[in-house]
Protein 1
Amino acid sequence: MVKIRIDGRSIEVPGSSTILEAARQNDIYIPTLCHHPKLTPFGGCRLCIVEIKGMPKPVASCTTQVAEGMEIATSTDAIEDIRKLVLELILSDHPNDCMVCEKTGSCTLQDLAYAYGIRENEFSGERRTYATRDGNPFIERDLEKCILCGRCVKACDEIQGVEAIDFGYRGFKSKICTTYEEDLDCEFCGQCVAVCPTGALTGKSWKLQGRPGGSLREVDTICPYCGTGCNITVHVKRNEIVRITSAEDTANEGWLCVKGRFGYKFASSPDRLTSPLIRRDGAFVEAGWDEALDYIVSQLGGIKSRHGSDAIAGLSSARCTNEENYVFQKFMRAGVGTNNVDHCARL
Amino acid sequence: MAGLAAIFGSGAMTNSIREIEGMDVLFIIGSNTKESHPVIANRMIKAYRRGARIILADPRKVPMVKFSDLFLRIRPGTDIALLNGIAHVIVSEGLQNDDFIREKTAGFEEWKKTLESFAPEQVEQITGVPKEDIIKAGRLYGGSRKAGIFYTMGITQHSCGTDNVRAIANLATLTGNIGREHTGINPLRGQNNVQGSSDAACMPNVLPGYQRVDLPEIRQKFEAVWEASIPSAPGLTATEMMDAAVAGRIKAMYIMGENPIITDPNMHHTIKALEGLDFLVVQDIFLTETARLANVVLPAACSFEKDGTFTNTERKVQRVRKAVNPPGEARDDLSVIMEISRRLGYPMKHRSPEEVLEEYRQLWPAMGGITYARLEDRGIQWPCPTPEHPGTEYLYKDGFPKGKVNFIPVSYHPPAEVTDKEFPFILTTGRNLFQYHSGSMTRRVKTIEEHAGEPYVEINPEDSHRLGFSNGDFIKVISRRGKIRIRARITRRVSPGTVFVPMHYHEAAANVITNDALDPDVKIPEFKVCAVRIEPAA
């Protein structure tokens, strides 16, 4: 542990901490754009700069380790001027279309522009313009909104191990792209979308469906696919799921796969069964619940009395909850009177 | 799972997903983790990047090969030979954990003798894995005391599935790589609540909590709470039900949320079984291939539309919360089953999912401390016997419930069906990244269908060149049980002589051709190996 002072406060932190980590652990705010707690630090955006007593220039707090006796100022006039300047430079080359941007409400860049009161921009000049060309069905890439923070590049490499994208070109022409700008060859896990601090990367299926906060409801639940049990947040507009995200502080650290993140629309598919069906003369006919249940009970009861309970078998499902599975086997054993009950564990 | 439970006491992952990051060696066998459990693969990649060594055994060059130090490309169905070969290396180089063997195991000396025929040279002949690599694998796994084994259906879906699991258990027992943090045996469960369905005893031989139904004292405990009598004879497994239906012994089936036509082996046999029933009820969210054969179809709610709990692969019970209402007249499975039970003369008193869990936890001590109130903020891993207990991250910290662990001799037998002149290719099946299981959910997601909506068979370029067809051509894959017409995907992911078909696509369903040969102990079908021939499609 080392002792340092941040903004006049004496604190003790592990010697391996960066200044940014030390500040955040002690609830001291330093703005960032390129930093992400689950990814290696980059030091690219320069918003997290701080002054250290005895050092001639400000340093990036995300890449500077603490040292014994360090005295740090996180918010001097000079620092705040530089931060505002950095933001103005970023915003000078950023579409000002927050009104229709999917990221509005959860956009770090927007939050910072708001915090620094940036409306007019004295650096307005040449803009990067890119045509959308990518045909993948999952991820919308709007490179004009990209601030080159590199979080997506790091997530794709460090978390997913795919390395589908990286920085390409130089200077003003720099952009995040695939090798030789070929079509995206990726797993579409959407980790890049999850870490993007602006509206550069969004889910295609989210488009114009509603933005987090506002009128959407959020419900925390569990992914319906494999056995990993990823924690998800379901965003609901009226009675429809319009987006799935995962919080960073969950067991899966906010990471999901293509099915978990983008595979939710089966729930609102027009193919969903909406009424009990009874087969009559070879074709299904819609029926009321009462009629269907009475029919089932009379058939099962009849077979049980004619052939015995063991002529009946039940298959339950790994899609169903613990409670439903418990009640299903209880019904088969105590209600029907057979141990012929199984599910798909072997399949 | 039953194989694992018989050896150590519990049929579940012994570690938690978090612990993967702290492992020194990971041995992944028969698990295409990056496609079937992508977020667990993320942890493995993290471990790899931190310097963990990864051994990967698979017939296919699956995506995790990129993150492995040693790739053992085995012939499908030869896992036992490989595992015994690795054990042979460990014993002959003296890398076994003598203290662990002395204190916690039985039968080592006798078992050791059964390894004699598994010297690396012999194992190379059977598995196709070079003997140098077998020796390397033995040194890596045997040299570590923080090693985890990971497997899925690539191990279990064989006619020798139980023996495969026993051979894995022997390796962990030999090295003492079980019962501590960051080391253990980890079967990754393929479906969101397959652990929970097993725990809750949708299984023919046990009551909730793996308590044997044939033991009178267990039945009495449940009968007192359920206020009903419970039959003592174990029932039929899913695959046996189909045989019994064909034989006319099963007259009616109630299928809740399953699609056996797609997921069971030998589809024609399954269809025959279900068509022969006097009465079939299917309760599902879609009119699946199975539901189309039903007499009555009941519309169910999906997991976004109900409250309850799921138990994930690391034994963690987590809250499922209702986000939207079910469409139309659809109802949650719980209320439907309770209503049918009531009308059949067995009313249940539960007024909510929470009340069901309250009864369940009374009857299974490992769940005893898990309540909805405690699950509000985070999941809890069983065993969790009391309301104060924090849950259990890894199993067997305080020894094994059965006392000593037995080494179990396992001999190698070839798969139930081997290649011959008429059927010269080995077919193996599995999942891909984008689709899920029988496809009833993912195939209704437009974006996923656009990207991965067409069935395919993976075949090596050597084979396609010899047989004279190109990438994207339609070919026929034919077994003794059936044939499918499917596009060829030419790739070195599969070795020459092996082809792979993903299981998800009803229009070219892998399970039309797979073998319904069963493991004799746990009745799991041999999805992973059967013999086929390839013909150009007209």
Protein 2
Amino acid sequence: MIEFRAVTKRFDDGTIAVNNLDLVVEAGTITVFVGPSGCGKTTSLRMVNRMIDPSSGTILVDGKDILSVDPPMLRRGIGYVIQQAGLFPHRTVLDNVATVPLLSGWSRSKARGRAAELLELVGLPAELGKRYPVQLSGGQQQRVGVARALAADPPVLLMDEPFSAVDPVVREGLQDELLRLQAELDKTIVFVTHDIDEAVRIGEKVAVFREGGILAQYDRPAELLARPADDFVAHFVGKDRGYRSLSFVDASGVEVGAVPLVQVSEAVEPSGEWRLAVDDRRHPRGWLAPGTTVDGPLVEDVLKPGGSLFEVGQSIRGALDAALSSPSGLGVAVDAEGAVVGAVTATQVLAVIEGLRESRG
Amino acid sequence: MIFADAFAWLFDPVNWSGAKGIPLRTGVHLLYCLGAVLGASAIAVPLGLFVGHTGRGGTFLVGGSNALRALPTLGLVTFLYLIAGGGTGPVLIALVVLAIPPILAGTYAGIQDVDRGVVDAAKGMGMTGGQVLWQVELPNALPLLIGGLRNATLQVVATASVAAYVGIETLGRPLLDGLRVLDYGQFVGGAVLIALLAVVLDLVLAGAQKAIVPRGLRLVGQPTGPKKGKRSQKLVALAAQPDSGGSTA
């Protein structure tokens, strides 16, 4: 647990970076600090491992005042991941990961053994350990950065915009990876980002900061989207917050209906309705438009590309998006293996959403 | 033909033996260079590391090293010689003064050049100030630091010739003698020897650089040491040195 008690940071030039911050980061959660630049989110994070010392106030980590601990010792017990990873260019990937164990006096072989375990944990092949940071992609460097921060198994992990320098596809993969790791490791994680989408995606609690280092709202992401505390937060979380808040709504109320199927590479009877083409594993391949005549076996060239897929068990946002993006208006529902189980319509999904709103009253 | 004369001088066995022979002069020349670069490193490397690491005194450092650069070496040698009344000290001190700015600049720039994110991460991992300096900043500063050493070495090799003005048997001797009696063969021969020495030393240092700089940094393909263009400028400067020295003497 990390506790900020009336913490203020005033820099030498008089600017107030953090203004009287009171906040509790609960143990075993991912808490995201988010806000526009200059809102004090990074300063708040860096005060936890004493990269910056507060001007006034107290910060407790697991009940202990951090100002009573010598900074290097304190930092060895707190994982730290930064933007661009900050890997040591002159050391191999394995030795980078072994940094903190070596600083703590482990033998080289034991530290390297531990480092190899961590590379595996963050999903990197062992042979990458012999390479140098410059030989890795941005996403791989970030994974190494995370492995390095976890090497001494610290209870607390500080992550300062760790994924903002990689492209969106890689970023999403890294976010998933972090959530997977967290489910396994149960660390207390403070994560700084300027990206509200990232914040609501990975945060169990989100602290929105505004300029002048003031905490504007501290809440669960669903609450943040549904009930922003004021205009600043409402504006910051963005225009489509109503849609995005659906990410936190369970889709179990949506009934998955039947969908007419046709099999790829088999003969097809003409029909006046949309039909979903599947392969022999029942994976969706595309839509066959009404009235399309097919001579001989069905080839994929005549199919219209499908929309996004709704994996049963996902949020209602996935169900709605599948329906909206499908050329037929039928959102394709699949199981965990990607096989088609049926379809949902936007009307169905909206009815469920309306029902939920009314029941909330 | 000047070059034929130089060739003849270089291969005349008379010039390869005795107290005034080429081997001994080369040895003396080398010793002065070695002493100067080592002496300058002893001062400039720690100072550059300190200023680069703490970030304190950068302005002083740049101003001071520019002031050193502005000192004419020949003037300094003559001045110290007159004060000290002879000996090897004046020449050595003047060469040390000449070698300090490039080494200082290389060391300081090397430390400053280390990615701030890398230093931030090192601190954040729990390294003490000393550990950050020795384990992270210094290894990453090596390419530029050694570049500074190579620069200093080239300058010192060229300039150690001035020791001949105060009677020391360096490779500057043939330049002075040749100029005095208008024996251009000897003059050019001496210049060629100095240039060769500079090239050989630079190759040795380039090899050392390859051996010392961590592999992870060499993969980056950072610029290391003096560039080709710079080096040829140095060689031009070498040849010009005794001439300009003569006019100020």
